[in-house]
Amino acid sequence: MIEVTTYKDRAVMVLGLGRSGLAAAAALREGGAAILAWDDDAEARTRALQEGFPITDPETLDWKNVDALIPSPGIPLTHPKPHPIIAKARATGCEILGDVELLARTQTEARYVGVTGTNGKSTTTALIGHLLKAAGLRAELGGNLGAPALGLAPLGLEGIYVLELSSFQLDLLQSRFLDVAVLLNIAPDHLERHGGMDGYVAVKRRIFDLLRDDGGAIVGIDDPESQAIRDELAEKIAHLLPVSARKSLDSGVSAADGELAEHLGKIVPPVDLRRLAALPGEHNWQNAAAAWATVRFLGVPSEHAAKGLKSFTGLPHRQETIAVVNGVPYVNDSKATNATATAKALASLDAIYWIVGGRAKADGISALAPYFSRIRHAFLIGEAMDAFAETLSGHVPATRSGDLEAAVRDAHAMASAAGEKGAVVLLSPAAASYDQWKNFEERGDAFRAAVLKLPDAQATHAGGERVS
């Protein structure tokens, strides 16, 4: 745990008492701050009380006596409207910052890598950490992935924090602390939180405002929004490295056709990513190119990076093969919470028995039409069931299974009866999990449990670590 001494003997309100909020409260308390804790959820308040944090209703506070507000990243700052406590803090000039900002202000000697993007940031963050550790460097992974920022171990001069940064977390950052900033891609997501696409693009662009003067910017250029950011930064950042999974580059790192090639001023033997089972498909080739560019900028020799790529085992809930039943793989892609993410899985598979649905995002699944020919049957679940059935009508045969366990049984029966070579049962929901589960991990775990109940299910090894 990090000890935050910045607010010693000063009052700090921690708003939101999930994992990151409790870790922030503990780090601040360890550093001598007077903690005021609150969560709108009564159960969360009870848990915090059990851990010794005093619960203080923010409505009763004199905010002139509060030095800082540390909100959890999911609490709205601006859109669709600010949380009432955010508004109160702003009205009195109280400083509002996140747990990652506290980490940056406290562990000033370490180096930092920040990774953002609509899709692929967890895999890329984990891969960067893996490559650094495989090269013998000391690295800690966290932020939006795994451990909360202030629950990480303290690092000194030789340490590197590799942080997945969501758009919500970027909103709460101020310091220029990153040695490397990575933007993978941008597609519509969380638009209600950022007031539309322009606001979402702008907050993703902010990661480069957090770079130190000599920092490196790694930018994916396979979508127009990210390409435009790269063009805008070209005259502003000296160390700017584009990455692409679709085309060869004269400068940067490319992975066109699965062959990772470095163009950083000298010839490096290419790496064949198509041989790496943990990094399937074009989207993972982009992740690998970004991770490669990052660790090479940080000084990792190419031969160490290549060896690290080959030993990476992947993350749960991202095209993770849970089991093979009568020759049919059952793939958990629960992390695919929007159509853009699901497109990655559909593009890399054939003869798909597709489990889809949940709480629909604004753009639905109409953008997946180019992949409908790959789908043998869809099994619909959750709140989006009727809306998705309408989109698929006349294009893909569909069953309204209702819940995930029923969908697994229905898909198993149909795939087994068809006996088609190359068939796969795929959970790739293209929707949020919040209609039935707390998060996508819980949904993926439910899929795993349902699959392993099937007769003749042969579980496969799932590498990686649990992430959030």
Describe the structure in your own words.
The structure is a single chain. This protein is of the alpha/beta class and 468 residues long. The chain has three domains: 86 residues, 3-Layer(aba) Sandwich (Rossmann fold); 212 residues, Mur-like, catalytic domain (UDP-N-acetylmuramoyl-L-alanine:D-glutamate ligase, 3-Layer(aba) Sandwich), CATH 3.40.1190.10; 140 residues, Alpha-Beta Complex (Protein-Tyrosine Phosphatase, Chain A), CATH 3.90.190.20. It is 32% helix and 23% strand. The chain is built from 15 helices and 22 strands. The strands form four sheets. Strands 6-7-5-8-9-10-11-12-13 form a nine-stranded mixed beta sheet, with helices on both faces. A seven-stranded mixed beta sheet has the order 19-18-16-20-15-14-22, with helices on both faces. A four-stranded parallel beta sheet has the order 2-1-3-4, with helices on both faces. α5 packs across α10, α5 packs across α11 and α14 packs across α15. The chain is globular.
Give the end-to-end Cα distance, rounded to a whole number of Å: 18 Å
Q: What is the count of DSSP helices, taking H or I runs of 4+ residues?
A: 15
Low-confidence stretches: 461-468
Range of helix content = 25-40%
Q: Tell me the overall shape.
A: globular
Enumerate the strands of the largest sheet in spatial order, edge to edge or round the barrel.
6-7-5-8-9-10-11-12-13
Major beta-sheet overview: 9 strands, mixed
The portion of residues forming beta strands comes to: 15-25%
Average of the residue pLDDT scores: 94
What is CATH's topology name of the largest domain? UDP-N-acetylmuramoyl-L-alanine:D-glutamate ligase
Q: Just name the CATH architecture of the largest domain.
A: 3-Layer(aba) Sandwich
C-alpha-based Rg, rounded: 23 Å
Number of strands: 22
Name of the CATH first level of the largest domain: Alpha Beta
CATH homologous superfamily classification of the largest domain: Mur-like, catalytic domain
Number of domains: 3
Structural class by helix and strand composition: alpha/beta
